[in-house]
Design a protein that fits this description.
- The radius of gyration is 26 Å and the shape is flat.
- The chain has three helices and two strands; from the N terminus they run H-H-H-E-E.
- The model has no long low-confidence stretch (mean pLDDT 83).
- The N and C termini lie far apart (76 Å).
- It has a two-stranded antiparallel sheet.
- The protein has a domain of 39 residues.
- It is mainly α and 96 residues long.
- Helices cover 47% and strands 4% of the residues.
Length: 96
């Protein structure tokens, strides 16, 4: 099986994504895109890409350096004084 190579013809994007949706969803996207001054394709791509980036950040693993990890652990293991609780009267009103 031959592997396909892509050669750019011009500066336009060449990958495509086809979506199936109800008329109602299509209408909503069209209205929102128009209100934003964008085409439906640009509107959907922009918002989908933003959400994808947020999701990827939320699911990324962050590994601190050994020095920062040691600092973090020492802070966790440090002073363990109890945190004072707010005093609330019988009517559930915060008393200061």
């Amino acid at each position: 099986m031959e592997s396909a190579t892509r050669t750019p013809i011009d500066n336009r994007e060449n990958d495509r994504l086809d979506l199936r949706m109800s008329e109602d969803k299509c209408r909503i996207l069209g209205e929102a895109a128009g209100a934003s001054g964008m085409s439906v394709s640009a509107f959907v791509l922009s918002h989908a890409t933003d959400e994808a980036r947020k999701m990827l950040v939320d699911h990324s693993n962050f590994a601190p350096s050994a020095e920062r990890w040691a600092t973090f652990v020492s802070l966790l293991e440090g002073d363990s004084r109890p945190v004072p609780r707010p005093v609330v009267d019988r009517d559930c009103t915060l008393v200061r």
